[in-house]
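Bug report

Summary: structure tokens for Tat pathway signal sequence domain protein differ between web form and batch submission.
Environment: batch mode, default settings.
Steps: 1) Submit the sequence below via batch. 2) Compare with the web form result.

Sequence submitted:
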Amino acid sequence: MELTRRTVLAGLAAVPVASLLDPRTAAAVPTAPAEVPPVGLSWLEGRPGTAAVTTWGTPWPQGAVRPDQTFELAAADGTAVPLQSWPTAYWPDGSLKWSAHAVTAATPAETYTLKAGTPAAPSTPVTVKNEKQFIDVDTGVIRTRIRKDGTDLISQIWRGGVEIARKGTLVNLRQDRIAEDEETGVARERYESSIEKVTVEQSGPVRAVVRIDGRHVNKKGKSWLPFTVRLYFYAGAENIRMVHTFVYDKDGQNDFLAGLGVRFRVPLRDAAYDRHVRFVGEGHGLLAEAVKGITGLRRDPGAAVRAAQVAGTKLPDPSTWDQRVTTRLQYIPEWGDYSLSQLSADGFKVRKRTKKGYGWIPVDQGERAAGLGYVGGVGGGLAFGLRDFWQRHPTQLDIRGAHTEEAEVTVWLWSPEAGPMDLRFYHDGMGQDTFPEQLEGLNITYEDYEPGFGTPYGIARTSELTFWALPATPSAERLGAMADQVRTPPQLVNPVDHLIGTRVFGGLVSPVDRSHPAKQAIEDHLDFLFDFYRGQVEQRHWYGFWDYGDIMHTFDEDRLVWRYDVGGYAWDNSELSPDLWLWYAFLRSGRADIFRFAEAMTRHTGEVDVYHLGQWAGLGTRHGVQHWADSAKQQRISTAIYRRFYYFLTADERTGDLLSELVDSDRTFLVLDPLRKIRTEPYEPDPHALAIGLGTDWSGLAAAWLTEWERQGPKAATAKAKLLGTMETIGAMPNGFVTGGGLYDLDTGRFAPVTEKTVSVSHLSAMFGQVEICAELIDLVDVPAFEQAWLQYCRLYNASRAEQTAECGAHFGNLILRQGHARLTAYAAARLDRDDLAQRAWREFYTGDGYAPTLPWTAQDVTSTLNPTKAATWVSTNTTALYGLAAIQTLALAGDHITNP
């Protein structure tokens, strides 16, 4: 499917504001199911080798699908597959924009077809029984009881009539200070989950979702660390998926988190020699031991007995063994405690002991464990896995008391062996007590410091876990397949042509195309940049609980390392939209490696770089040495446009929460003035006249409002009114977006009238999602003055000073990021059908202040740093993100006018 500039133009038909319907209204929406185009689906990383469950989202062209449309799914051989579907977004005309779907596949097919129809029902649907004090969820294979109060999120898990696990709680360890240097240890106190609210979000027939909200509480009733846990159940599945989120609600100075985990009790009924412990290490490498080992003894119980224990199957009756072993079983140690700790990205260790109070024995070491373990016996047991186990170090899997009637399993998201989380600010302020001093600091280290602003209060982290209730100890092959699914959960995806053809993200992307020499060169450059950053994550070890998913901002050409310790040059925190670059790169390629990179970034930037509690809730933090260190708390980092892709492609409920959090973030302008350090006149925030920039501020608000409107959330009507109100009042400004800012009324959701032409243009204004959100809005609704204002900005940013002055009354000043803005010129070219602008866009792309075609486009080996690595001293993340977006969008909008550089 080739998108030329004119085919893009032909698709830019918008819906008049006056004709906007309630999204749930079926009027003016197609009624014939035959009009719904079938969609072919495939697995992101190829067909799973074992039973798989998955949820995904599929987009639909505007006007093509009724809001109440039902769907059916068929495997490649035509077999009907049980399916559960629900809407996640609507077009302004009321038709379905995005639908979400869930399946469970005992034997996954290579491909599937989604089409209009009646879904097949599962032979045994998942059911939810909502009682006064608990909720029972039955998948047909396992039954789980979820408590509505108390400490146990999951009180029991049964398989058939056998209780596999009980007392599933959250646990964390707290200490009030960090021991420095050679000081002695600090006392820790334990907190456990305390349930405050339980909500059934879905109840089958294929998928059930239960949300649990609460806090961690100690024995004295003191609480902290609010959490949200979602439990996912699928028809016919023997596992439970858990998505665990906690919010850090301390300032990081006095309360230190020294351990954070999920804990279960596992009843054990088998003889000690029929109980097993399993840990998966590298690949499918396996630690496979019995609590009471009968191999390697001085006396041989018999080959059949030894083989059964190694395989994890039931041993023959001891009366059949060599009696020299049977009569001495009491003298063989029982190893009740096991621990696998991953304290760095490149090292894990396993140790064991007989029981508490006795010495630990080292078992083995390795590099990167899978994060999967098992404890149980031939009569059943619990397997447990943590995704991104080594990437999110320090992590740990603990088994305690496997020699008793009840083992304890803890999956540590933060290992207690690693020492406490140290979230304290990293310097003492260095005398930057006033705004002028802070601006001077900004001028040397690029860090925008302000006392009290470098706080982690309100940041969050989300982790994904899976628990299997198994009828017996699984085989080595089965454990390997389970470990693969923990590492990389199966994900169904739509074909590239469908993702692009539905125009759900504004028509700014076209498929990868190497048909022209110039296009071939650009595609090679895009591949180089992605591969380089993927390699840097590995070589520079950009891993860790709070860091994984982010990349660094700027390289140090002298030390040949990234500037991890230099103010605002360290962690990138979405600066200039690398998130968007990655998601657009996936949309046009369908590449699994790009999807997973973007997924990790979305999980990180949406949680760690954004505040979810406190006065700055809804704002993100600018780039810095610590993700929360900089005093610039802004919409440009928290913007919903960075999260929308992952939400709609996967229907992930936690990402949906993040989007909902942002709907009222316009109120943050009452508590924090973004321009406080550079204002020359006193400013008191007025709810009826808030100074809001039309670039990074408004685009973030607009993305949140659009998402709430199209999702039809509880504040959809207000969000729609604010979105359309600001669009109309921006369009009414004499210089539109060139004006730079406006006075916004929280009550009316509109900007105050502007009567004079004002010019205030920043190189950053459009670089945090404004290009993309404006393209979506112009595609969706017909506000001619808004479109004219945006096209004016697109035409003039890279135009001559004379052109700028002639139209706006003054030129825009000394602007940079001209290559990144080439895509604005290309958008104007497509929208206005102007060949001259399309040609100009390519000149700007090739000769702007970004990456030139004449650069080496290679990386060099470096051996002088701590570890051997690759370096490309000409690469910076700002330029990479903008080059990627400019290349992708200019190819889509003006690709038919491309020339060789």
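Above is the batch result. After comparison, the two runs are identical; trailing whitespace caused the diff. The chain has 20 helices and 39 strands. The CA atoms of residues 622 and 632 lie 6 Å apart.
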